[in-house]
Amino acid sequence: MNKNNTRQAFMRILSYTKPYRLYVVGALLSAIISVALTLFNPILIGRAIDLMVGPGQVDYNGIFKIILILGVIIIIGSIFQWLLTLCTNSLTYRTVKDIRIEAFNKLNTVPLKYIDSKSHGDMINRIVYDVEMISEGLMQGFTQFFTGIATIIGTLIFMVYIDVWIAILVVVLTPLSFFVASFIAKRTHSLFTEQSSTEGDLSGYIEEMIGNQKIVKTFNYEKRAQDKFEKINGQLYDVGVKAQFYSSITRPAARFVNAIIYASVGIIGAVSAISGRISIGQVSSFLIYANQYTTPFSEVTGVVTQLQTAVASAQRLFSVLDEEDEIQDSPDAIVVTETDGHIDLDNVEFSYDPDRKFIQNLNISVKPGDKVAIVGPTGCGKTTIINLLMRFYDVDKGAIKIDGVNINDMTRNSMRSMFGMVLQETWLYSASVRDNIAYGKPDATDEEVIRAAKLARAHNFIERLADGYDTIISEDGNNISHGQKQLLCIARVMLVEPPMLILDEATSSIDTMTEVRVQEAFTTLMEGRTSFVVAHRLSTIQEADTILVMDAGNIIETGNHKELLEKGGFYHNLYNSQFATN
């Protein structure tokens, strides 16, 4: 990324600090007072040195008074240094909190296709690790900026006060530190950007492997997984070593420049003292000021590494924040509160890839209360229809209507609330069984939750759990079986009793005996409700009012179970293939 984009990213980070201007003011005032008190110390030390003329010529009373004043100044300076740290920490963590909230909210507003096309581990890495890098960079940057500016201005004033010409020498030599910092920064930024990207790749791969360990072990993929991990890890090592090498020479290089300045001041100060222009105590004070003056430049070059990492991380995070949001509901969008369940798909066209046509001129008309089954080989478009019905994806052409109203003219939330959905891929979160069932109706009573669990045939196994409905589901749900997880997902829908249902392989992980009972519950639930059932096991959809047989994104046959068997076509062959006997 070029210099302008780097600057834009940095300024964008700073824009998040605007709501916390009071902390900026507090940090600035604390830095000024703390630095001012600290910079007064060398003057006092110089005066104390001048009171020690030689053996028997020491003003102990004067030195004692100076020591007392130094003690008071140090204590007060420490208090303001603490306030500086408090203000910068508060500023940093509040700023980063806002960034992280915005990033997480962004994931809830981007189109589903963006989530589907990205590595989940990499997205997690951006919200957690990259934001943490921004936090560290901000904390270092703010602290060094406030104290550095105050120190440079303060020491310059004191040095000019002691001796103008030596002060000019220090100022003339100082740009060498800027040259060193600029030279190294140009070489480290691209490396830190590549390092952040590789770290995202590594996090994504680790998340993928850990989340699918059973598959990894089943197919003896451990060696290949290890080899790929070592390859990515090796790339991270190579770019990390280079980035750290260049960044590690910043402080030594800056210290070398500062040592030259310090030595020059010492030599010229000694000559000035011998000539009587300044006292020995003033030379001592000047040497301390020269060191304090160059320290911020040294620290700035040291912080370059942290800032480069922070900016690189910010650019990765901003690439997520800059993604286009899901198309917003129109201002006059209808809020749906009830529906008859009449659904029409009129000349619908949709493709995941614009260069590869998929669904073309799809027309479906579903009457209220109809039970519609969608069957066909893998990849034929069954789940795609569900995604379009729920507006997880928007149609490219045509329209989907509910009760004659285009779903694009409805608010997404109200339209989606008309559907209850059970997917083949179960999802539970780390909470109690009760909370998971009540996910769509948080204010549900215990009686309602238990009733839904009984309808889903989940009550008995829940009662056998250690804490019953209070049992905490682990983060990945591994403390219950996959079939049990699916029963809880079914109970979740049973609880909200939506006017329309979508069942996408909803009983695929349930044993046959339980499936029969759950099908009975579904039959009861589907009475009077428009229902879409996606199924591979054709035995579960024989009672459907209409069966849509799909292939390659098109509906090739329509009818009920008996009619389709009598046609002797695609459905007939598909059905017989499942019930063929050797």
Tell me the CATH topology of the largest domain.
ABC transporter transmembrane region fold
Task: State the helical fraction.
Answer: 55-70%
Please give the count of helices: 20
Given the C-alpha coordinates, what overall shape results?
A: elongated
Task: Describe the protein.
The protein has 582 residues and is of the alpha/beta class. The protein folds into two domains: 3-321, ABC transporter type 1, transmembrane domain (ABC transporter transmembrane region fold), CATH 1.20.1560.10; 343-579, 3-Layer(aba) Sandwich (Rossmann fold), CATH 3.40.50.300. It has helices at residues 3-15, 21-50, 60-107, 112-117, 120-162, 164-173, 175-211, 213-218, 222-248, 250-274, 280-321, 382-389, 412-416, 433-437, 446-455, 459-464, 482-496, 512-526, 561-567, 570-579, and strands spanning 52-54, 57-58, 343-350, 359-366, 371-375, 397-402, 405-406, 419-422, 500-504, 530-534, 546-551, 554-559. The strands form three sheets. The chain has a six-stranded mixed β-sheet, with helices on both faces. A four-stranded antiparallel β-sheet has the order 4-3-6-7, with no helix packed on it. Strands 1-2 form a two-stranded antiparallel ribbon. The chain is elongated.
